[in-house]
Amino acid sequence: MVDAPRWRLTNEHHLNVAELPDGTRVEWEHKETARETGRTVRKLYPVPMYLNPKDPADHNYPGEIIVAHRVEGCHNLRQDYIFNSPPTPEMAPLNAEAEAITEVWRQKWNNPIESLPANGGMTPSETVFMTKMMEAFERIAPPRAEVPTAESASEVVELRERLARLEALIMVQSQAKPAAEGRRV
Q1: What string of DSSP letters covers 161-178?
Q2: Strands 13-15 and 49-51, how do they pair?
């Protein structure tokens, strides 16, 4: 007799549960009555079931939720939720069979954030393109302003001194002007 692969849910899941512990199926029923014939058409659709390990109402064992895959000839499932989808990273395998299935799927689980390139989101070809584009811009760009030399630095000092003298002269003239306007003949 083979053991069924079993997992413990470590986080909330929407699982395609094929069978509940009591043997019932998780399905949504759609009924439609044809106007011409009066017959009722009934369709059943499998729907995912929300299971939360923090909610005691969802527990099928004391304090936990155990899910399993059905295996022919296996009758040790007791109260397990039977699901028919691959395991997720947030399912802890409980036996060797579950561990083997988890290892196969673990290679396909990747974190989308960890798969992003480390260079700001550019692929190597985009990086090469950007480098070539920047080099082309440097070739066609106008020449850059010259860096001040010692001679031009002394010219800047001289200009600042002249500006200070001009400001002082303007201040003197602005103070003398109101006195002259006050005298009328």
Answers
A1: HHHHHHHHHHHHHHHHHH
A2: antiparallel
Say how far apart CA 75 and CA 70 lie, in whole Å. Answer: 9
Residue 115 or 167, more confident: 167
Scored b (16 or more CB within 10 A) or e, 53-69 reads: beeeebbeeeeebbbbb
Q: What is the pLDDT of residues 105-135, one digit of tens each?
A: 888 887 777 666 666 667 788 888 989 998 9
User: Tokens at residue 137, please?
Assistant: 């811009």
Distance CA 93, CA 91 (A): 6
Query: Confidence class of residue 52 from pLDDT cuts 50, 70 and 90?
Result: very high
Whole-angstrom distance, CA of residue 90 vs CA of residue 67: 12
- The label of the residue with tokens 């936990």 reads 64
CA pair distance 18, 163, nearest whole angstrom: 88
Which tokens sit at 136? 């082309």
Report which of residues 183 and 25 the model is more confident about: 25
Distances in Å between the alpha carbon of 130 and those of 122, 143, 144? 10, 21, 21
Neighbours of 70 (CB within 10 A): 14
